[in-house]
Amino acid sequence: MHNTTSYHQGPINIATFFSTFIQNFKGADHKMTFSAGRYEDKKVSDALSLIFIGALIMIPFSFLPSNPVAWVVKEKECGARHLQHISGLNYLIYWFCNFVFDYCAYFITMILCIIIFAIFNRQEFIAPDRFGALFVLLLVYGVCSTLMAYAASFLFKEHSNAQNTVMGFSFAAGFLLIMIVYILQQDEDTMDTADLLRKIFRIVPSYCIGEGLFALLLLDGKIKVGSAAGPWDMDQLGWPCVYMSAEIPLFAAIVLLVDNPFIKRFWERRKYDRKLSPIIDSDEDSDVEEERLSVYEADKLDDDSDVVRVIDLQKKYNTGKVAVKGITFSIFPGEVFGFLGTNGAGKTTTISIMCQSFLPTGGSASICGYDIVQDSKEALACVGYCPQFDATLDLLSVEEHIELYSRIRGVCKADRPAVIDGLLSLAGLTKYRKTLASKLSGGNRRKLSVALTLVGGPQVIFLDEPSAGMDPVARRGLWTSIQRAAVNCSVVLTTHHLEEVEALADMVAIMVGGSLKCIGDKVHLKNKFGQGYEVSARVVDPDRIRRVQKYFENEYPGCAIKEVADRRIVYEIPNDFGFADIFEGIQTKKKSLGITDYSVAQTSIEQIFISVSGGLV
């Protein structure tokens, strides 16, 4: 019976029920003794305090490995790393310098954390018997976490993703995983699982630092787990330090093996076949065929008069796409070579191969007589490269950029001031010498990229759309700089501004679908592919237009009107007539026709490009 007026009757009935239930299994004479204890509020408070302190401490140590990985991926993302490689920077020196800087930054942060512990009198960390263990733990973690960040950098292409991922992973490993293991340790049934997870999680440096810091917190005598002899005990800071010490050479080996250029070349060479048969178009242009045979002959005779020689160069990607289909050409000293093509034609792929971003699938290429596959280091020493996108570092000034690449190129200290001043003047950046790259306009960043190309006086410079993002005035200033630079080196130029090729190039090659469609000097191409001449004339009054039309129709059969506007008329005259004859004829009839001024021009490179590429601009 249950009496609602007796408040204790409910619990008594429940106790009687369970006692009877247990007696059926254990027997009526079995005794079970329980004692009611007071809920320990202070223990709960201390546990919550432990969790809060642990989370707070792990925040700075979560940020630390995310900074090195962000900068390394940023340099790879913007192309600065490849530009440094082209300039001659050894990969061992690159990683060593990064490590020294990053570890110094970490060490400063570590000292600040210790100072904060001292300010708040956290004896768990700075007590005389624990400080040494804490110091060693933090020192080892700095080395291990930095190298782990470098190893992780190969997994990312964007620095923001790298930073956020490593930061979140470090915090989760250093705090959340610690909490999971700590909770599992409180129950005897899950103790073995907790020990197994500890051994697995210790592979991650952030878990080791978290485990070590929590071990120091648990040694304060208020909350105890087991009976630790001291901070150096293996179950406290011993195993975390041992694991991280063992991982240091492991992460270092991963970084140096993955980034080793010789190993990367070895794997790439497995797909390279120098004698792979070229893919030759059945309708190959006669000039392209003549260029190919000429290069074959020069290669056969060991004629080294050219500075760039490309023979049957091919590139096939893993997707099956053939980006370059056996192109052949050569470039001579002091020559500006305009390399044109539609988007996806293969021109950037060709330049990337020449600058050793990756190896070709077949064929060969040499720079200054050095094969880019067999003598890659020597070939790169002759190359300057301006990538399609700026490979500048935001926190370096214009002057510091040139200083950095001068050091990498091996320019002696006494010559560096003159080199810096000369390149700043050549690029028109003298007044911006102290300006950070991040503060420069898009046009000035392109100028800086071109200036870096010229550091060290390379014999061949590759300019991949150097004037992208520039206004017309700045673009013409850049043209002047390129013309001055071409006095001492050969220039390979790709651009979408075809007037740039018109103004600068000596030789022009047009690629479509991975193949060369035409090659030759500008005048030859205009004569071969052009529609003739374009004559623009202005008359004194609109009434004279009809008289001018009759003159052109009578003197130049086959001509066609392109434009008539007010007092201006534009005609297209076929190639049957000579350039000088057209000039002489118009000059003779100028007064009688009422022409105030006129111009005669061959078909532009732009028109030829549209014609050759089939309008796929």
Question: Could you give the topology of this structure?
Answer:
Elements: H1 9-26, H2 41-78, H3 80-86, H4 91-119, H5 123-126, H6 128-152, H7 159-185, H8 191-201, H9 205-218, H10 234-258, H11 261-269, H12 286-300, E1 308-316, E2 322-331, E3 336-341, H13 347-354, E4 362-367, E5 370-371, H14 376-380, E6 383-386, H15 398-409, H16 416-427, H17 442-453, E7 460-464, H18 472-485, E8 490-494, H19 498-504, E9 507-512, E10 515-521, H20 522-529, E11 533-539, H21 545-555, E12 560-565, E13 568-573, H22 579-593, E14 595-602, H23 605-613
Parallel strand pairs: 3-8, 3-9, 6-7, 7-8
Antiparallel strand pairs: 1-2, 1-4, 4-5, 9-10, 11-13, 11-14, 12-13
Helix pairs in contact: 2-4, 2-6, 2-7, 2-9, 4-6, 6-9, 6-10, 7-8, 7-9, 9-10, 15-16, 16-17, 20-23
What does this structure look like?
- By secondary structure, this protein is α/β, with parallel strands linked by helices.
- It has four domains: 1-37; 44-259, no CATH class; 286-523, P-loop containing nucleotide triphosphate hydrolases (Rossmann fold, 3-Layer(aba) Sandwich), CATH 3.40.50; 530-615, Alpha-Beta Plaits (2-Layer Sandwich).
- It is built from 23 helices and 14 strands.
- It has helices at 9-26, 41-78, 80-86, 91-119, 123-126, 128-152, 159-185, 191-201, 205-218, 234-258, 261-269, 286-300, 347-354, 376-380, 398-409, 416-427, 442-453, 472-485, 498-504, 522-529, 545-555, 579-593, 605-613; strands at residues 308-316, 322-331, 336-341, 362-367, 370-371, 383-386, 460-464, 490-494, 507-512, 515-521, 533-539, 560-565, 568-573, 595-602.
- The strands form three sheets. Strands 6-7-8-3-9-10 form a six-stranded mixed beta sheet, with helices on both faces. A four-stranded antiparallel beta sheet has the order 2-1-4-5. A four-stranded antiparallel beta sheet has the order 12-13-11-14.
- α2 packs antiparallel against α9 and α16 packs across α17 (442-453).
- The protein is elongated and about 135 Å long.
- The N and C termini lie far apart (95 Å).
